[in-house]
Inverse folding.
């Protein structure tokens, strides 16, 4: 693409003005849509997805989940955490299952910023997890899971294949819970391990 675009009139003009040129095309994310079994046919439940990341939103749609738009959901530190939580709770009045994704901690890891990662995790804990747990109290029955799809350590600034912590509980378990730690260290000490991520959902939903 460089050989073609370098002599385009726009780039010639930008070059003369000392501006950066648009002289390369980098295709990214190309491919065919995946063929996934419909979520309803597999679990007998109606589901939805909230995410600012097109990849995750697309996977959800391919599985038959309803994609729910949230104003101000950016996928970064400034995302609308509270709006996502409220939209998920509202959707659960009609749906049986919600996947709520927050990208901010991952982006902070890529940026290598300890401060931003702490800020993102605290916002997720307070504005998403805390708000969702409070909102779920009005439902007679529910289960909730907190999980991450991968780690993005600050020193490496990229994804790693290390095991990730998960936590889930039903309403009655949360009502008698005494608190505890949610971390890689606590998860490792539990002795509970799943080799394959796709094993989690059938266990949660049974």
């Amino acid at each position: 693409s460089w050989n073609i675009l370098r002599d385009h009139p726009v780039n010639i003009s930008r070059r003369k003005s000392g501006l950066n040129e648009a002289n390369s095309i980098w295709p990214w994310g190309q491919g065919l849509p995946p063929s996934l079994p419909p979520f309803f046919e597999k679990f007998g439940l109606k589901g939805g997805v909230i995410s600012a990341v097109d990849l995750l939103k697309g996977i959800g749609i391919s599985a038959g989940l309803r994609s729910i738009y949230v104003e101000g959901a950016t996928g970064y530190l400034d995302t609308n955490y509270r709006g996502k939580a409220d939209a998920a709770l509202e959707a659960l009045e009609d749906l049986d299952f919600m996947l709520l994704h927050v990208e901010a901690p991952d982006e902070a890891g890529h940026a290598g910023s300890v401060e931003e990662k702490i800020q993102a995790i605290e916002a997720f804990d307070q504005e998403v997890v805390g708000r969702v747990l409070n909102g779920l109290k009005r439902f007679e029955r529910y289960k909730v899971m907190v999980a991450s799809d991968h780690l993005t350590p600050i020193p490496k600034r990229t994804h790693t294949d290390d095991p990730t912590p998960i936590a889930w509980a039903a309403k009655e378990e949360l009502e008698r819970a005494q608190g505890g730690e949610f971390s890689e260290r606590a998860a490792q000490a539990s002795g509970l391990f799943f080799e394959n991520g796709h094993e989690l959902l059938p266990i949660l939903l049974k």
About this structure: The two ends are 52 Å apart (CA to CA). The chain is about 40% helix and 10% strand.
